[in-house]
Amino acid sequence: MFDRDRLMARRPAMIASGDWRDTTLLDHLATAVSRTPAKTAVVAFRGSEETRITYRELDRLASVVAGNLAALGVGTGDTVSFQLPNWWEFTVLHLACLKLGAVSNPLMVIFRERELSFMLALAETKVLIVPASFRAFDYPAMAANIRAAVPTLAHVFAVGGESPHARPFADLLAPCEAPPAGALSPDAVIQLLYTSGTTGEPKGVLHTSNTMLSNLVPFAERLGLGADDVIHMPSPMAHQLGFMYGLVLPVMLGCTAVLQDLFAPAEMARQITAEGATFTMGATPFLNDLTEYVATHDVATTSLRVFVSAGAPIPRALVAKARPTLGAAIISAWGMSENGAVTTTRPTDDEEKATATDGCALPGMQVRVVDPNGVELAPGEEGSLKVRGCSNFAGYLKRPELDNTDADGWFDTGDLARMDADGYIRIAGRSKDIIIRGGENIPVVEVEGLLFRHPAIAEVSVVGYPDARLGERACAFVRLREGAEFSFAEMTSYLEAQRMARQYIPERLEIVTDMPRTPSGKVQKFRLRAMAKEG
User: What pTM did the predictor assign?
Assistant: First the structure.
C-alpha cells in the first residue's frame, strides 16, 4: 500500500523527541466520555434541521455504526469512503472506522463520476456513504453508475432520504452487537485523502494517528486552544483543513464542534454568535466574506478569539480589515494535505509578521528554502520550500514513486517561498502546475487533457489569475484549429458532459493565435499568467 519501512524508520526519533505520543483519537474520545459525558460534542446543521450530540452519544453512535459495518465485512485496513457535507454522520463515520481499524476516505461533494471512479477503484472501497441529495444533485444515482467500474464496492448508503440506488443510512444505526474490541495501532493508516497533482490523476495521501495528532498538539498549544473552546468549521471536512481542525481537533481537546454544511456568511456569523464559537478556520474566501458581512450588518462576533486562514496567502489589506471587524486574532497558516498546518503566525506577532508572512514552523516541524542544487538560501531569497518533521504523511497509496521525500526526510512541497531571518516564510508561488481556487486544488493537467480532446482545439494551456475572494481563478488559453469556432458556453457544457466537477471548470476562456514559447518551443505559462492577470 505504501513504504511502511520508511514510516517506521522515523519512529525512534519521533518517540524520543516526544512528537509522536502513541495515542489515537479513540483515546481522546474515551477521556472526553469519562470526564464530560453530557457535554455537547457536535452541533450540526442540515438546512433548518439542527442536531446536538453529547460525547456519550457520539461514542455510542460510533460503536453502533462500527458494529453494522463489521457485519458487512469491513475490518482492519479496509477502506470506507464517505462523500458527505459537514453533517454529524461524517464525524460518527470516522470514529466508527477507527473502532474497526478501517481507513476513512473522505471525498469532496464536488466530485463526480470521472474523479470518483478512479478514487474508489484505487482505494478498493468496500462501502460508500453519500447524501440522498445535496444541492439538488442525486448522489445515489451517480453511485449506481460508478459501481460497475469499482468491483470492490459492495454497499452504498444514502444519508437524509430514500433512494432506489442505495440503502438508508439508518440501517447503519440499527441495534447490533458491538464489534470485538481491539487496540488501534497509532502507526496504522487511518485516513486516505486524495489531493490533486501534476500527473493528471489524484494522489492518495495516507496518515496515521501519530502523523496526524502530532500536528494538532502543537497547533492547539500555539493558539491556546483547550476543552473550553467552541470550534466552528465552515470548511468541508472532506478537505484536510476541515477534517483535521473541524473533526479531529475538537475530539482531541474534548471541546464542542459546530459544523456548517452550506457556506453563507450570514449563517456563519449567526452560528458563531449563537453557539459562542471562539475559533474558526477557513480559506481566504471565508475570511473575506465573513468580514464583509459583519462590517455591513449590525452583527458582532464578540466570542470569536481566533480566525486561522489557510489555503492561500492572505492579502495584507484583508488582515488589517478583519482584525477590528471580527475582534479576533487573524492567524495566517500554510500547510498541505501531506502534513497539515506546517507554519502559522502567532497571536502575539507584530503587524509586519502577522500581515506579510505565512508564519513560522510549528514545534516538531522544520522548513527550509533551497536553490535548484539543494543549497539552503540566505534570508529573503526565493527558492523551493522543503518540509521535514513529525506530521509528514506516511506516503501515497500505491504510488511510492511520487513521494518526493529525500533520504534525510525532507519533503519537496513544490512551492516557492522566501524565509526571513526569524524563520518566517512567505509563499511566493508554486513550481507545480496547480491552481488553488478557494483553498481547493484544481488539477490543471486533467482539465487541459480533456479540453485538448475537443475537435475545435489545437492547443490549450490553463493558468491561474488572482482573485480577491477566491485567491485564484482559472483561465483557459486556447488555440483553435483552422476554421474552427469555440465559445465559453461550449467549453462549459463540454466539460460538464465529461462529468468534471464544476469547480474545476475554468472561469475564463481566451482564444489566442499562438502561445508564448521558449526557444525550445515550451509554452511560457508565466507569460500567460501575466496576460490573464492584466485582463
Answer: 0.88
